[in-house]
Amino acid sequence: MLESGTMPPQPFVLGEWRVEPSLNQITRLARGSTSQRITPKAMEVLLVLVSRVGELVTREDLLASVWSGVHVQEEVLTRAVADLRKALDDDRKEPRYIETIPKRGYRVIASVTPADRSPARRRLPLWGGAVALAAAVASVLAWGSRDADNEEALSLEGRPLTTFPGREIQPALSPDGARVAFVWQSSGSENWDIYVKALSEETLTRLTEDPDVDLAPSWSPDGKRIAFARYPAMGVCRILEVEVLGGTERELGSCGKSQNPDLAWSPDGGKLVVSSARSGALGLWRFPLGGGRPVRLVFAGGTPRAPEIGSQGELLFEERWRDSDIEALSLGAVDAVPVPVLVSTREDREPALSPDSSRIAFVSSRAGSPEIWVADVSGGSARRLTSFGGPQVGAPSWSPDGRAIVFDA
Description:
Layout: E1 12-14, E2 17-20, E3 25-28, E4 35-37, H1 40-51, E5 57-58, H2 59-66, H3 74-87, E6 98-101, E7 105-108, E8 112-114, E9 138-142, E10 166-173, E11 179-186, E12 193-198, E13 204-206, E14 213-219, E15 225-231, E16 237-243, E17 250-256, E18 263-265, E19 271-276, E20 283-288, E21 295-298, E22 303-309, E23 314-320, E24 324-330, E25 339-342, E26 348-353, E27 359-364, E28 371-376, E29 383-384, E30 394-398, E31 404-408
Antiparallel strand pairs: 1-2, 1-8, 2-3, 3-4, 5-7, 6-7, 9-31, 10-11, 11-12, 12-13, 14-15, 15-16, 16-17, 18-19, 19-20, 20-21, 22-23, 23-24, 24-25, 26-27, 27-28, 28-29, 30-31
Helix pairs in contact: 1-3
């Protein structure tokens, strides 16, 4: 993500859009899409929001930053945000990019990455010597190796796993850590497709060849299948699965107008939980892979995302409303009321359950800046593991033995 407090002078990617500030131009990352211009002031508003992605930016701060020294009415800001939403094909009531915090301000809730770097895929299990795709950075916390009172900044390392011409995004390592699935748009091509590569060799296996955009690859627990989302140039996205060794694609259901839905497999590989807007509002849906209709597990009135399923079938997720909290319910629940697990006056997000489901690693800004924290499964005994003091961190994931936590920064 872009570092907090900085304006991106270079193009960057906001969800499914490429943003070019110097041209006041945005382009959807989909086959056949054309660019469109937005007003300079709308772009300035977007840059201020993006510089503090995920955080509330008050109306007063936006007015002071964009219209410094000029007295304007708040309606001018309201119009600029409305213009942004229209350009981004966003919805004020069910936002995917810009969320309104009533009577306070706005915040960007979509992912943000520099255009010349590959965004790190959530739940990236980087152990066994593996690291992120080119330019993505990961760091490992050895469990129990750090003194809680001695939180020195961690050194970060990265090495490329792929160096193919074009754009390579959304890496996902196989459960055994031997292969990586990723999305590749080769140089000179308009197609975004899913590929698999063994870490020990350069041979590629192409899993999809559809002219629509294929995104969000996610491995099944046995490493034999990959679920993903397909976005047509017009219409709604679909969730599909395909065998890694090749085979016919199988459609699992619609994900509505979701932007990059989060996917999580059940431990037995029989179900898939998806953050989806298939009913119009974002909720968590359970897709039975053996047949049957998808079932909505929860719609809490906010934006439930980042589902994480534990070894015993417990389901954690991030609930974004006025801030981000982490809540839980049973995988077998239907339209249930979630139970708060991690709640603070700041953001708590991206939960990751340890292999034995006894601990939760998560990202929190409760100490003032986004850091990696760990707590027991009930939410108690929360402990901060990093002290970066500014840079964005995310995607915590446990090693199979539960002795290390990997994250990106």
